[in-house]
Prior knowledge:
single chain, about 160 residues, alpha+beta, Alpha-Beta Plaits, about 35% helix, about 25% strand, globular
Amino acid sequence: MPTAFLGLGSNLGDREENLRSALQEMEKRGAARTVKVSSFYETAPVGYTDQPDFINAVAQVETMLQPAELLATILDVEKALGRERTIRWGPRVIDIDILLYDDISIEEPGLVIPHPEMTRRGFVLKPLAEIAPDLILPGGNTAREAAEVIASAELKD
């Protein structure tokens, strides 16, 4: 069964419950079975910074859906949980990104896997390294190594 890694984030309402609800909704719909979920990390917003802090996590899931089908279900789950797309990188009840899907690379309008910003975001790499430290990422580093690199860069700022 294909394995995917999903990045989850929320900065409105009950942020932790929003992440839990998103994974539960994915399971209810038969879209994904959760294998592992990282700890929840509180992080500052990126891009548009005039908004509340986020809670972020990464989940490893198994799915029978193809990547485009998984994305469609994710968008439906986000909408069902109250996501409104107004400001790019703005506040949101829930955000779910497909980070990785097996070893597949896809570059289509609206769907890019591996996620193009994944290796530049500490709020993705730290929880990913927690649940899959030896996972090889684009570029050849493990999740642990990539998280260490980004942590070092963030300390230099």
